[in-house]
Amino acid sequence: MSRFLRTAGSDSSSSESESESEEEEIEPTTEKKKGRFLRSDSDEESEDEEDVKRIIKSSKDKRLEEIEATGKAMDNAVKINDWPVTSTEFDKLLRLVQRQSNVSEPIPPFFLKTLTNLEDSLNAALAKEKEAKKKMNAANARALNSMKQKVKKSMKEYEKEISQYQADPEAFEREYALHTQPVEAAHAKGIKKPKKIADGGSEEEHFPEDDDDFTTVGKGGKAMQFTADAIFKTLKIVHEARGKKNTDRGEQMRILEKLLEVAVTSYQRIRVLLALVSSRFDYNSSMTSYMPIDLWVAAEREVDKLISIVAKESAYSIQETTEDYDELLERSPDTEPDSIVRIRGSIISFVDRLDDEFTKSLQNIDPHGTEYVDRLKDEKVLYRTICRAQAFYETSSQPEPLARVIMRRLEHIYSKPDAVVSALESTLSTSEDPPSVTLASSSTTSSLIHALCVHLYKADNSLLRTRAILTHIYHHALHNDFYTARDMMLMSHLQESIHSADVATQILYNRTVVQLGLCAFRCGLIKESQAMLQDIFATQRVKELLAQGVHQQRFQAQLTPEQERAERARQLPFHMHINTELLEAAFLVSSMLVEIPLLASIDSEEQKRKVISKPFRRLLDFADRQVFTGPPESTRDHIMQASKALQDGEWENIKIWSLMPEFASVKEMLAKRIQEQGLRTYLFTYAPLYTTLSLSLLSRTFALPLRTVTSIISKMIWNEELSASLDQSTGVVVFHRIELSRQQQLTQVIAEKISNMVEQNEKTLDVKLGTSVGWGDRGDAKGEKRGEQTQERRGRGDRIRGGLRAGTRGRGSRFAQGLGNQMAGHSSQRAR
Fold it and tell me: For residue 221, is it left (φ>0), alpha (ψ between -120 and 50) or beta?
């Protein structure tokens, strides 16, 4: 009867028997523990006795027991031919063994034995299946085939350990026990709760160093001793834990710092420094964030120390590819055949990473705060390290890394003013081993840049040569040496092959072209400046092309997160930006000075549709459509208002010109150019209204010298832009009125259409024959022949277009006038 349904009249004997049976069942169970405040002395004594009997197992023993339990479960499943369960247990077994490897513990012999037995069982099961007439079910067959592939892969992965185990199982087990002995010995000393660190995993045991009986023990019982004799063993433990899951990178760096303190020989210092710098770079594995500044400073200091050691002791050489050597033995020049100790590593990779992390930190720091300025001060230290690396590679005669480090040095100084370059070069005066080329030896910044670029021109790397000539052109343009920069750009032919270069080089090319356009503007070469800046502004993606921002257009597809991260990573630091507002002002002013006289010189609507600068014409049309125009507020509004007033000889000054170097001379040049173009526009606009016009009046109106006015008008007459003549005796310009007949006007239209047709036919023929000449076609004989034919055909087309355009240039052109006269003569003859 149930104890809950028992009534008062129930049989007492049955109740007693049931209570006795209940007491017998309760006896073997553990009594519920009392609260800590309700315990008596006897209770505490009984619990102490239980603690003595309790067995404490380490995490390693628990893992081994779990591996053995999984192996036994798998064996039982194999015996009953249950392959789905076998597959599941085998996957679990592989995970457990992988966990052993992650914490730097050796492979247990039990696993190798189980793996070999499993292979035999699989072969027997497959042979039995072929012989049997009745096949197994589909799920079991799929699991069997899957197990075959898994075991085959595992046998190949652990091939070395299996061969060692099969050769001598007893010796393999003794070696395994020997590796696990230090941990057991530590437990045998009675230590129950050691302090835990995580240099190779989350459960490594650390014992106080001030006691001689304790030592640092890593996973698998590998002791870490901070002595000169045990440096290489500890390095090996750290290397094995590098990159594994649950590895404490901070503790790894602290261990390597202690090893550097106890290092005695140069070989030991080099090995520890190589490992320490690598561990600092590995601390932050994220591609979006930058390396912590304190770690960067420590890594830079250690790279500098590494370069100093190998520079002073030429018997030690750090190379990326070396022959295999025993990393646990001390090496010296006396033990090497050629007295040179070659160590596997790469100094140039450290320098590249330092520079990249420095740039990445500037990209992620707010440029308008003091932190950005403080971070920018570290450039002097980095520049000194780069120069010391250059000096080391010069003495050791390593051309490839030398070219790479010179390119890094060049990228830090090519776009900076002379004062900043002098400040960077001043850090080399205290250096013990400066490079062969310095500002002190070159006397000027331009000669320093020239010497570095000439060295790169001789390098085998084409990418470095391309970037070197772009930086050289940029530097010449920055110093207003326009003609030298322009000639170098034309001789390089980079405009033909830059589309096939990498993104960083294309960005450098865009920056160079823009700087060249600004240089032309500062030098007063308005047409050249407008032509160079036209290609950049026509795309309406100026900031994106200059790597100064991510521009998202309205109808452009949304960028994926990966593409957006890549775009952000390409952005230049703020101190390297080119002022886009100043750039736009230079472009619009150049377009204004080119477009406004052109608009005044033509009178037909069809000719007005042909524009030189579409962005400027679009802004001008928008300004003309405005019903009410208020006072100008932005730079663009000032330029549009100046464009409207240019026909009346008025001009505006813009405040942004103060951002240019030598802005006083730039404003003086700009005022002169605007006055000259204002004179040209006035003559084009009002020539039909005058018979004669005084030169002195034009000189006073536009505040230009009489000689300059005479020169401008003479040039316009010579170029057939103005149908007039000069009367030197009276000091006037006499205008000739030529009324074009209907036939002459049609002749001009026909000439323009012929010119367009020739140009369109050439483009169609180029596309059909595929004769565009690039860098890749130059080595091909057929490509060279096609290129010559294309150039010849283009030359003919240019001559044709030149003649046609010469005939349609302005009023009274010889071509149109002559053709019109011939047609007029034919008409008069027919009339007679």
Answer: left
The Cα 310–Cα 343 span in angstroms is 11
CB 542 within 8 A of CB 506: no
* Number of helices (H), then strands (E), in the chain: 36, 9
Q: 294 near 261, Cβ under 8 Å?
A: no
Distances (CA, A) of 613 to 221, 308, 535, 588, 724: 76, 57, 10, 9, 29
Q: What is the pLDDT, as a whole number, of residue 413?
A: 92
Mean pLDDT of 142-152: 83
Torsion of CA 656, 659, 660, 661, to 10 degrees: 150
- In the three-class reduction of DSSP (H, G, I as helix; E, B as strand; rest coil), residue 331 is classed as coil
What token pair was written down for 442?
A: 């070159």
- The CA distance from 292 to 451, in Å, is 35
Per DSSP, the residues of 556-600 read SPPPPHHHHHHHHHHPPPGGG---HHHHHHHHHHHHHHHHHHHHH
| Tokens standing for residue 820 | 């019109």
Over residues 529-550, the mean pLDDT reads 85
CB 415 within 8 A of CB 407: no
Residues 6+ apart with CB under 8 A from 505: 463, 466, 467, 470, 498
- What amino acid occupies position 98? Q
> What crossing angle do the helices spanning 503-522 and 580-601 adopt, rounded to 10°?
60
Q: Give the tens place of pLDDT for each residue, 474-527.
A: 999 999 899 999 999 999 888 888 888 889 999 999 999 999 999 998 888 888
- Buried/exposed 492-519: b ≥16 CB within 10 Å, e otherwise: bebeeebeebeeebebbbbbbbbbbbbb
pLDDT at 218 over 70: no
Place of tokens 């790479």: 404
Distance in angstroms (rounded) separating the CA atoms of residues 217 and 207:
8
Of 526, 558, 643, 666, the residue nearest 592 (C-alpha): 643
Token duo for residue 543 = 């900031």
Choose among 207, 229, 232: nearest CA to 218: 207
Give me the DSSP letters along 513-541.
HHHHHHHHHHTT-HHHHHHHHHHHHHTT-
C-beta separation of 146 from 185 below 8 A: no
Report the DSSP beta bridge partners of residue 344.
319
Contact 413, 421 (CB under 8 A): yes
Class of residue 450 by CB neighbours under 10 A (exposed 0-12, middle 13-18, buried 19+): middle
Q: How many CB atoms lie within 10 A of CB 15?
A: 13
Give every CB contact of residue 817 below 8 A, 6+ residues apart in sequence. 738, 744
Q: Are 723 and 799 in contact (CB under 8 A)?
A: no
The SS3 of residue 39 is coil
Contact 268, 228 (CB under 8 A): yes
- Tens digit of each residue's pLDDT (9 = 90 or more) over 605-628: 555 556 666 677 777 767 767 766
pLDDT at site 7: 43
Residue 513's pLDDT is 93
Confidence at residue 355, expressed as pLDDT on a 0 to 100 scale: 92
CB of 301 closer than 8 Å to CB of 273 = no
The set of residues, in sequence order, having a beta carbon less than 8 Å from that of 368 and lying 6+ positions away, is none
Taking Cα atoms as reference points, which of 261, 350, 255 lies closest to residue 303?
Answer: 350
Q: What whole-number distance in Å separates Cα of residue 528 and Cα of residue 521?
A: 8
| C-beta separation of 105 from 220 below 8 A | yes
DSSP string, 90-139: HHHHHHHHHHHHHTTPPPPHHHHHHHHHHHHHHHHHHHHHHH-SSPPPHH
The whole-angstrom separation of Cα 111 and Cα 117 is 10
Q: Give the pLDDT confidence score for residue 505 in this predicted structure.
A: 92
Nearest alpha carbon to residue 378 among 349, 358, 364: 358
- In one letter, which amino acid is 757? M
For the chain, the 3-state helix, strand and coil shares in percent, each to the nearest 5, are 65, 5, 30
Tracing tokens 């007029």 back to the chain, one arrives at 824
